[in-house]
Amino acid sequence: MASPIVDAHLDLASNVLGGRDYRLEIDEIRSAEHRTSEECTVSLPELRRAHVAIAFATIMVMPERWDATGVPIYQAPPSIDARAQIAVYESWQRDGLARIIRSRADLDVHLGLWARDDVLGLVLLMEGADPIDQPADLPEWWRAGIRIIGPAWSMTRYAGGTDRPGGLTSAGRDLVAQMAEIGIAMDLSHMADAAFGESLDVGTHAVLASHSNARSLVPTDRQLSDEMIVAIGSRGGVIGLNLYNEFIHPRWHHEGERPAVGLDDLRPHAEHIAGLIGWERVGIGSDLDGGLGLEETPVEIGTVADIEKICTIIPEAACVGVLGNNWIEWLRRVLPA
């Protein structure tokens, strides 16, 4: 039996609402979309082929724009889009294509069944907390299945984020405190430096960085500083290696210079993070199809089924953990009974 793979960051439902049908084979999706960029690398059949047992499946609502002060502006209340994305995952569960994991009991049942049927398990992760109208609404989102929240993407009503520095707002402090009380884990990817530190000061139930690499190698605020890495590891968190070339190679840019990037370029990130907090705190958070596509991932990654090739850049003894078991052990610690 193949060891379970866990991918801690896949933007699936938002792409479905954008018109992508992940029930199809990848070749069918690519043929239907006729894209010259952001070419698909993920599908439900391909995830099964890849032996991905669990994905942290995001609920992610993009703003239409930001105003002059950096406040996000949405076409419609983001809670509407977020609920529609949850409905996508629920429809997959009804159709036997996925199982939503809400508890340790669900996790154990799923892993037992997965060993026989390869059906994907989903842990729901809200990326950017703007769909939560107010912190008092958190119990409603918990009941809907959300078990992880990243308060920021760029700036949100709750926190500073990527490219838009700032700390927690007053509502953000309330949100973080209530997340800890309810038992919702905090995804620190995308958090601005000030918001990162203030969140830890307020207190958390559990932490992770679902899809981030090392700032010492790619010096932007989207990546984790050494101090951030140590803070996550010391709290029992896991960091998911991101497969976006721009987050792997310091000279690769979405528009402009694009040197060839391979998994060997990801190796220094993995080794740096593991050197600070240990291989048991390293996992995968590929971000495949998350606003990027085939041409923006390492040359060895043609589809998500190639994700196991990450084992070529990490010590053999750490491979099973990095591919999935480190995330599974983290889930056992942080999910409710």
From TrEMBL:
InterPro entries: Metal_Hydrolase, Pept_M19. This is Membrane dipeptidase. It comes from the Bacteria. The lineage of its organism: Bacteria, Bacillati, Candidatus Dormiibacterota, Candidatus Dormibacteria, Candidatus Dormibacterales. Gene3D superfamilies: Metal-dependent hydrolases. PROSITE patterns: RENAL_DIPEPTIDASE_2. It comes from Candidatus Nephthysia bennettiae. Pfam families: Peptidase_M19.
